[in-house]
Amino acid sequence: MMMSNASGERSFSKLGIVEGELRSSMDQERLSVLALMSIEHELLRSLDFTDTIEDFAVAKARKTAI
Predict the structure, then answer these.
(1) What is the chain's pLDDT, residue by residue, as a tens digit (66 residues)?
(2) Where are the alpha helices (DSSP H) in 1-66?
(3) What are the boundaries of each domain within the chain?
(4) Using CA atoms, how far apart are residues 33 and 13, in angstroms rounded to an integer?
(5) Distance between CA 5 and CA 58 in Å, rounded?
(6) Taking a C-beta distance cutoff of 8 angstroms, is the pair 17, 38 a contact?
(7) Is the pTM of this model over 0.70?
(8) Is residue 63 packed enough to be buried (19+ CB in 10 Å), middle (13-18) or exposed (0-12)?
């Protein structure tokens, strides 16, 4: 039971930090997503975003090939 208690407290702590700093400049959906990312940071660190970043960079490139 101690593990689930600590996990819940950690989640509320992270939510408080995120809400306190970002509440005035964001809508509720983005705030919720950031809170979830902050809580699940260990899972996010294990993911590889290399392909996603490259796809985004290609889509947003300002220069066009001649």
Answers:
(1) 445 566 666 677 777 776 666 666 667 788 788 888 888 888 888 989 899 899 888 888 776 655
(2) 2-22, 28-39, 41-46, 50-60
(3) 2-60
(4) 15
(5) 44
(6) yes
(7) no
(8) exposed
